[in-house]
Amino acid sequence: MHLRIANPPTKPLLIWDGECDFCRLWIERWREITAGKVDYATYQQAAQQFPEIPGEQFKRAMVFIEPDGETFFAAEAVYRSLRHRSSKRWLAWSYDHVPGFAAISETTYKFIARHRGLGSTFTQLLWGKDVRPPTYFWARRWFLRALGLIYLIAFASFGVQVEGLVGSNGVSPLNQFLPAVYERFGSTAYSLLPTLCWFDSSNSLLHFLCSGGVVLSLLLILGIAPALSLVVLFVFYLSLTIAGQTFLSFQWDILLLETGFLSIFFAPWRLWPGELMLWRGSGPLATTSPVSRAGLFLLKFLLFKLMLMSGVVKLTSGDDCWWNLTALDYHYWSQPLPTVFAWWADKSPEWFKHFSVAFCLVVEIIGPFFIWAPRRPRLIATGLMIFLQLVIAITGNYCFFNLLTIALCLLLIDDSVAAALWAAPHKRAKNVGVPFRTAKRPQDQLRSYAATAVIIVTLPINAWLILTAFKPDVDWPRPLIAIYGRLESFRIANGYGLFRVMTKDRDEIVIEGSADGIDWLPYEFKWKPGDVMRAPGWCAPHQPRLDWQMWFAALGSYRENPWFGRLIVKLLQGSPDVSGLLAKNPFRHDPPRYIRAMLYRYRFTTLREHRETGAWWKREQLREYLPTISADQLRQP
């Protein structure tokens, strides 16, 4: 139904039923979407101005009047009003051009109009009492500070281990690794391994990168030059990730790089802290820099990919323990570095372990889809994902992985929720009436364009990575292989999937030294299981990277882990940098003459065994992992 009235308003006008609670909720949303380009009035106020429109028509449907007098009703009226926002023009276009779209829209509108009470209940169930478009100033503010803290932890944690791991006298010296790579690949090595350490692979540069990362992390926490800080943080951590070789090859390292890179397009492009948080009842009123929607989408999609892939790969890996819900029968004692709480969790009833596995799979596979849902289901999914990360962090040492995932979850908490939880009432009341948005600056437009370009390039790759979680053997299209081949070395588009296959035994390598080949003394690591009387420790968010690699080494042979042989050589040579990575070096004054490695099978003790012996672990010797090596062998040509 179309109509042209004689006395149109000077500005587009949407007229609605002021007695309809459902209408009132959505009018507030549309008012913000159209941002002053459309006026709104109740028919109780405006009906007399337009006698051409029957009163019953105002009661049945909304009315939209253009300045030229053309008038629209019902669903078409809503679409025509929203056309004044560029991002919503597709609705009116679809109404006019897509077959069936108009009919479906009008049928749906009529149903809701006849059941407004149900519509209002359903709306409040999904959105609450505020259906206005969510804003994320609070989320941006605290996400960036959390990311700065995580970067700080990552740089500081690696900094105290860097010389022992990849220093000139470490396990895998960087000044030997890079020349060997260049000798094999030539100038191609620069693009294969993008790192600043090509300029200088000395211990000094490694410490500069770590200490520089700490300083830049503090700047990010303080909000000083956030985008610029993120750019340099990414370059520094990428350089260290390459330099760290196998010791920085964990999923949380590439997750930090991908998060840090995408955050460049989400952070305000400014030099000094200038964010002004003002409150309008339940949300912020103004800020010096608008939140980039494209940048926010990139980070939310990263969280979606991380959670979904982590869940799906468990079911497509072929490991039956995820299907029959027995994964936690093994996980607590077989994971790399369990905490003392894992020992207690292992004593929980079987039904609870099985329920926990099911809960994990539901949160990881179903929960991510609610990232895109209205406020209340989105917040429920957020709470479940954060809860899962906290439970994982309590029972296992996964360094900063859980913190980083929780930080990404903060991006799902919009300002109206944050205001209700944390803003002081007097602060909210003080700023009533302050304008909602400030004008975009040129750098804000540039940031949005850059984020959109990143979406265009990375979205097809990320979509295919998600597909590989469902179909691990699927072949990649050639164009995607070409693009991914260029991006892979920069770690900005990655696949994820922790514990794809559950380890069902726990083998531990015990390194022993001897001065005479008869009496053997064990080297004790700081965090990995060794002495059965020592309780599992809690070192997260710090990551003892040598301890972690020892867990992986036990899954194979020493021939499959070349770094392990270099570790033995450094211990025979008495390297202080390497021995500094250990908790106990029984040969502090003189290095041993002989070293060997034995393989043991470890398992948590039972409650009864712990009460009787005080031991947290029980073990049995399996075999020799590394045959005895003597210092004399090292001196032979």
Write up this protein.
With 637 residues, the protein is an alpha+beta fold. The protein has three domains: 125 residues; 354 residues, no CATH class; 129 residues, no CATH class. Helices cover 53% and strands 9% of the residues. The protein has a five-stranded mixed β-sheet. Strands 7-6-10-11 form a four-stranded antiparallel β-sheet. β2, α1 and β3 form a beta-alpha-beta unit. α14 packs antiparallel against α15 and α20 packs antiparallel against α21. The chain is elongated and about 110 Å long. The N and C termini lie far apart (96 Å). About 4% of the residues have low confidence.
List keywords for this structure.
four-stranded antiparallel β-sheet; five-stranded mixed β-sheet; alpha+beta; 11 strands; 9% strand; 3 domains; 637 residues; 30 helices; elongated
Would you tell me the overall average pLDDT?
A: 91
Counting structural domains, the number is: 3
Compute the separation of the termini in Å: 96 Å
Percent range for β-strand residues: 5-15%
Shape: elongated
What structural category arises from helix and sheet content?
Answer: alpha+beta
Largest sheet: 5 strands, mixed
Helices, by number, come to 30
Can you give the helix content as a percent range?
40-55%
Strand order of the largest sheet: 1-5-4-2-3
DSSP strand count: 11
What does the radius of gyration come to?
30 Å
Low-confidence stretches: 276-286, 424-439
